[in-house]
Write a structure and sequence with these properties.
The chain is mainly beta and 813 residues long. It has a single domain, classed as Beta Barrel (Maltoporin, Chain A), CATH 2.40.170. The longest helix has 15 residues. The chain has eight helices and 47 strands. Strand 31 and strand 32 form a beta hairpin. This is TonB-dependent receptor.
Length: 813
């Protein structure tokens, strides 16, 4: 008998004895928060916002967790239709992506290693949609479809959520099926041929028994980068999302929600291209300027913000993802029993230009991948508020990934990647046609028991211990078959130095016990304090992107596995409302230390840019966050959020050296101190030993980040409809951050600010029409900077969007 069927039969029996009890599939926010929800903690300026972060309905101000909530109206008005855009209104959230597969979501600088994605490890930021865990970070690139609200939780959440999340969670809640007929339509259009259409319809199929909701979203936009060689626009958008939900009131005490979704993205994407050139310690004839001159090559523009490229490989970033889920909620009186069963898939079909320029160095770079996952979560949570509240759960996760990698070197590869003094010199035939075919398999099994108790010592003081027992097993296989231009597997040392055959079968198994303790005190109904300590673990993993090579170009098998991260987290928080609850100010201070930090580093042989994982000693991140919102009058809202984050490697003594030291033989000296360490036998790397980067910034996180804005409205009646004209502004700022695993002056991204404005008319619950401008001042900024294969000194970049403008109109029926 299936778990869900057992719940139905048991609930039907219980319903006869308790017919007056009614349950819903998911506790909902109040109507004000749903229709007028602004940004942040309670950014409508006051009142109660109901959240389900702790798996029960609670007001956000009473939850002792640093978190923010963004309502569906705010998502639409700010153009926040995916996680990448969410970072502009969430200072503590970082999201970086060179394509959907190579994406990373971090909170407070933690969550995923910065750089190329490695399938053999897990993300520290959990992404949940209607309680279902999404294991692929690529799913974070999808468009939000029919979203009611998004809860962003900061800090470890492993005792509340099925999958362990050591950095935080992004909890996305879509609009549920309704027994009252309703429909929504939203249309947007703008420059760069931007179009976005969203629609949903909901209503009863069987009165008071079965309701359905159908939703769809389409986004298209011309690319912002012009390829002069292929004569086409690149980095476009082409997204389609479909979602269906069926809610069945099986009994007065049992609800079941069956959901299905499908999303397809097929953009002409993703290109990084010439940003600048930096000097290395290689001989001049092995640096970019000389290498390009020898080929008679020059890029279309040396100013990246001319937005011109000439990459010569067709780009593709096609992905399909979707799945089915069944959520059952059974109210047994004293508690609610919840079952979340889900199956999901993700198919990835890419094509990249990994030399980033218009020369045939790497002519093919693609790693098509197919993933399936199955999850089962079972929870019991106490109802209401009593002396002892609790959430207890069990979680099972299974995942399989199959990847078929292909890389082909072209006729310019020898000139760029080989030393002129090597046996073959720079004979184009040496590397032309050199091909690596990789077959990669991966299975991941995880199981956990978790729970959190809340003991209300009295009306003001509560103590909440949590515990998690976790089991992880990961098994993989990596087979790389390399052939030369003639199709032979007999390779020269030069060829093996660029693409080396590898065959290994890594495996990792681990049990761990983690937990947390929160003490909360309610000074009065509008002032809440809390203190949290968490001891958490991020599962270890296996390397599935190829291993670094020793001096004989053989894989170093000792690097097959990566140890778990050990997390010690401390947090103090204050949540306040005042001025008749028209003002909200929440403050959180945190200190997190991680041992055996999992970092992506680059193979420093002359071969292609390839990330592999290592444990980078210790990391520490600490900071202060402020979320505030004010409503001085009924017509005026203001919000301001800020984060100071000091995230550093406290010990990383064997890191890869930054690009300006590539090819050097002398130990680098910084501020009068030697920062290199003599290389040990078999250490991966070029002639320069690895570097000690202890004390340097973690990549991808700004020391200072802010989001701020305001909206003013005037009541008016238009065409017989009462509403208000409004003018809104949203701004954000991020200070300088590093865009390389080892900080480099060439890959630091300068701080930047963005301004977005909107103006329109809305009638809450009816329609909303407004014009908008994003990046109002057309600020030039990079989302990412990276180095070229072969450490030539070429730095490539991914510019952020230029100024965009358009209009949006939405209607609710």
């Amino acid at each position: 008998m299936s778990l869900t069927l057992a719940l139905i039969l048991a609930a039907q029996t219980a319903a006869a004895a308790n017919p007056q009890v009614d349950v819903t599939a998911e506790p909902q926010t109040n109507q004000t928060a749903r229709d007028e929800g602004r940004l942040g903690t309670a950014q409508q300026g006051g009142g109660d916002v109901v959240v389900t972060a702790r798996r029960r309905a609670e007001t956000i101000q009473s939850v002792p967790i640093a978190m923010s909530v963004i309502g569906g109206t705010a998502l639409a008005e700010t153009g926040t239709y995916n996680v990448n855009r969410l970072t502009q209104i969430q200072p503590t959230l970082q999201f970086y992506s060179t394509n959907p597969r190579n994406s990373a979501a971090n909170i407070r600088g933690l969550g995923a290693p910065f750089g190329l994605t490695n399938d053999g490890i897990e993300q520290g930021v959990g992404i949940y949609v209607d309680q279902v865990y999404y294991s692929r970070i690529a799913s974070a690139t999808f468009d939000f479809t029919d979203t009611e609200r998004i809860e962003v939780l900061r800090g470890p959440q492993g005792t509340l959520y099925g999958k362990n999340t050591t950095a935080g969670a992004i909890n996305i809640i879509t609009r549920p099926p309704s027994f009252t007929p309703e429909a929504r339509v939203e249309l947007s259009a703008g420059n760069y041929n931007f179009f976005q259409g969203k629609a949903s319809v909901s209503g009863p199929l069987v009165d008071d028994k079965v309701a359905v909701r159908l939703s769809t979203s389409i986004t298209t936009r011309r690319g912002t980068i012009y390829n002069t060689r292929q004569q086409e626009w690149q980095n476009s958008q082409d997204n389609l999302s479909l979602r269906s939900q069926f809610l069945w009131h099986a009994t007065p005490t049992l609800d079941l929600t069956l959901s299905g979704d499908y999303a397809r993205q097929n953009p002409n994407c993703c290109v990084q291209y010439y940003a600048r050139v930096g000097a290395t310690q290689r001989p001049l004839n092995r640096q970019y300027a000389a290498l390009a001159a020898a080929q008679g090559y020059s890029v279309p523009s040396t100013n990246a913000f001319d937005r011109l490229t000439d990459v010569d490989t067709d780009l593709r970033a096609k992905q399909e993802l979707g799945g089915l889920s069944l959520v059952a909620n059974w109210d047994v009186g004293e508690a609610t029993l919840t079952s979340v069963s889900a199956w999901r898939f993700w198919h990835w079909d890419p094509s990249n230009d990994r030399d980033f320029i218009g020369l045939p160095i790497t002519t093919v770079s693609a790693n098509p991948s197919q993933q399936s996952q199955v999850t089962q979560e079972l929870r019991i949570a106490s109802n209401g508020k009593r002396k002892l509240d609790y959430v207890l759960g069990a979680f099972y996760f299974w995942q399989s990934i199959d990847t078929q990698g292909l890389q082909v070197q072209g006729p310019a590869a020898s000139a760029f990647l080989l030393n002129p003094t090597s046996a073959a010199g720079r004979n184009p035939a040496t590397l032309n046609g050199l091909t690596s075919r990789n077959t990669i398999g991966f299975t991941n099994t995880s199981a956990a028991l978790f729970g959190k108790l809340t003991w209300h010592v009295d009306d003001r003081l509560s103590v909440s211990p949590g515990l998690r027992l976790n089991y992880d097993r990961k098994d993989g296989s990596y087979l790389s078959v390399v052939t030369n231009g003639a199709g032979s597997t007999s390779l020269t040392s030069d060829q093996r130095g660029v693409l080396a055959p590898q065959n290994y079968t890594p495996s990792f198994t681990n049990w761990n016990l983690s937990g947390d303790l929160t003490v909360a005190y309610e000074f009065n109904p509008n002032v809440h304090y809390y203190a949290t300590y968490a001891r958490s673990y991020k599962s270890g993993g296996i390397n599935l992107s190829g291993l670094p090579l020793d001096a004989q170009n053989n894989p170093i098998l000792a690097t097959q596995t990566v140890k778990p991260e050990k997390v010690n987290h401390f947090e103090l928080g204050l949540k306040t409302q005042f001025a008749d609850r028209r003002a909200t100010v929440n403050i959180a201070g945190f200190w997190t230390e991680i041992g055996d930090y999992q970092a992506t580093v680059n193979n420093l042989q002359v071969n292609v840019l390839r990330g592999y994982l290592a444990n980078a000693g210790r990391v520490r991140t600490r900071g202060i966050e402020i979320d505030s919102a004010f409503r001085p009058t009924e017509r005026f809202n203001i919000y301001a959020n800020g984060a100071f984050t000091d995230a550093r490697y406290t010990r990383f003594t064997n890191a890869p050296c930054p690009p300006e030291l590539s090819g050097g033989t002398a130990l680098p000296v910084v501020n009068g101190q030697i920062v290199g360490t003599p290389a040990a036998a078999g250490t991966p790397g070029a002639s320069l030993p690895y570097c000690n980067i202890s004390g340097q910034w973690l990549p991808g996180v700004s020391r200072w980040a802010f989001s701020y804005g305001a909206e003013y409205d005037l009541p008016a009646t238009v065409a017989g409809t009462e509403g208000q004209f409004y003018l809104g502004y949203d701004g954000s700022y991020r200070s300088k951050f590093s865009s390389n695993p080892s900080r480099s002056t060439y890959t630091d991204i300068n701080g930047y600010s963005l301004s977005n404005v909107r103006a329109g008319f809305k009638a809450p619950g009816s329609w909303n029409a407004f014009v908008w401008v994003r990046n109002l001042f057309d600020h030039d900024y990079y989302e990412l900077l990276a180095t070229q294969s072969g450490s030539t000194g070429l730095i490539v970049g991914q510019p952020g969007d230029p100024r965009t403008y358009g209009f949006t109109i939405s209607k609710s029926f």
